[in-house]
């Protein structure tokens, strides 16, 4: 896939839609691309919810800029999760719109202007809800996979 865009839509010879979304798993690491074929665009609720959970959890410790959030997730996951800009920034804007994070411009570690995101009180409550949902869903999936 071309690195120009985080999402690419391609029509194959049967005129089915192939949509590359920015989250999937690979044996070596998470490359963050998902190839879905079909006539209708797939729902990305689960994927967005997972990314939202990761971002909210990362911001519990301290406010961070976008690149720092992506680096922290990659570091904590021991390079298994790599969040692309095309996934991260729409997620941050969505979380800001929902009132779960707030943003402010500040100077970064290297004295450049960067937008720092912090968790709001509502965001902390949502994180607890998301964690409970994640535990419930992952337990149910584990039961099915047994």
Give a brief rundown of this model.
The protein has helices spanning 45-58, 66-76, 85-98, 121-145, and strands at residues 8-11, 17-21, 34-38, 64-65, 101-107, 113-119. It is an alpha+beta fold.
Our Rg estimate from Cα atoms comes to 17 Å
The portion of residues forming beta strands comes to: 15-25%
Ends apart, CA distance between termini: 34 Å
The top-level CATH class of the domain at 44-145 is: Mainly Alpha
Number of helices: 4
The secondary-structure element order is EEEHEHHEEH
Flag low-confidence runs.
1-38, 41-45
Structural category is alpha+beta
Topology overview:
Layout: E1 8-11, E2 17-21, E3 34-38, H1 45-58, E4 64-65, H2 66-76, H3 85-98, E5 101-107, E6 113-119, H4 121-145
Antiparallel strand pairs: 1-2, 2-3, 4-6, 5-6
Helix pairs in contact: 1-3, 1-4
Descriptors for this entry?
disordered N terminus, 6 strands, globular, alpha+beta, Arc Repressor Mutant, subunit A, 146 residues, 4 helices
Explain what you see.
The chain has 146 residues and is an alpha+beta fold. The N and C termini lie far apart (34 Å). The protein has helices at 45-58, 66-76, 85-98, 121-145; strands at residues 8-11, 17-21, 34-38, 64-65, 101-107, 113-119. Mean pLDDT is 78; it is low at 1-38 and 41-45. It has a domain at 44-145: Winged helix-like DNA-binding domain superfamily/Winged helix DNA-binding domain (Arc Repressor Mutant, subunit A, Orthogonal Bundle). It has a 3-stranded antiparallel β-sheet with strand order 1-2-3, with no helix packed on it. The chain has a 3-stranded antiparallel β-sheet with strand order 4-6-5. Helix 1 (45-58) crosses helix 3.
């Amino acid at each position: 896939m071309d690195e120009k865009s985080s999402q690419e839509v391609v029509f194959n010879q049967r005129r089915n839609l192939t949509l590359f979304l920015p989250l999937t798993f690979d044996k070596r690491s998470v490359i963050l691309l998902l190839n879905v074929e079909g006539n209708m665009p797939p729902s990305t609720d689960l994927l967005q919810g997972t990314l939202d959970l990761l971002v909210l959890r990362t911001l519990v410790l301290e406010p961070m800029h976008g690149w720092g959030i992506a680096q922290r997730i990659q570091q904590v996951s021991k390079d298994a999760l790599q969040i692309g800009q095309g996934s991260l920034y729409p997620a941050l804007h969505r979380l800001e719109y929902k009132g779960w994070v707030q943003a402010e411009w500040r100077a970064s570690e290297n004295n450049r202007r960067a937008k720092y995101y912090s968790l709001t009180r509502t965001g902390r409550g949502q994180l607890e809800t998301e964690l409970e949902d994640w535990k419930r869903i992952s337990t149910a999936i584990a039961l099915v996979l047994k």
